[in-house]
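Q: I'm a student working through a structural biology exercise. My instructor gave each of us a protein and asked us to get a predicted structure, then write a short paragraph describing it. Mine is Integrase catalytic domain-containing protein. I'm not confident about reading structure output yet, so if you can add a plain explanation after the tokens, that would really help. Here is the sequence I was given:
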Amino acid sequence: YHHSAEDYAKLYIQEVVRLHRVPVSIISDRGAQFTAQFWKSFQKGLGSKVNLSTAFHPQTDVYHSSIQMAPYEAFYGRRCRSPIGWFEVGEVGLIGPDLVHQAVEKVKVIQERLKMAQSRQKSYTDVRRRALEFEVDD
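A: Happy to help. First, here is the predicted structure for Integrase catalytic domain-containing protein. I'll explain a few features afterward.
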């Protein structure tokens, strides 16, 4: 079964906009679904700007590479499952204390990875940083 552009637009409104509101801008890869005129017109109608990343341009996925997981997974504590079939076979459902424990552990991992990424960025910045010198009456 093939989904039409209209199906994706409805799904986008129901599952993204409903939960997160209309984004100011979207950075996406150059997949056909994101470069299509319908998608561009649809986003323009919502008031969103579509920015396409360039190949091998890590700046567009810094958050993802910093925490080593998809932003959706970091935000919700689980992998993204969509009605279109983007799920992993054998994924187990967690309930109760197990779910809380897994979420707490994931937050710890994310915090650790963000600290490492910040430290790495600081070291890059420190290489170019010069000490500021001030004189009296500056």
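A: Here are two points you could use in your paragraph. The first strand starts at residue 25 and ends at 28. Residues 83-92 have pLDDT under 50 and may be disordered. It's a good idea to check both against the output above yourself.
Q: Great, thank you!
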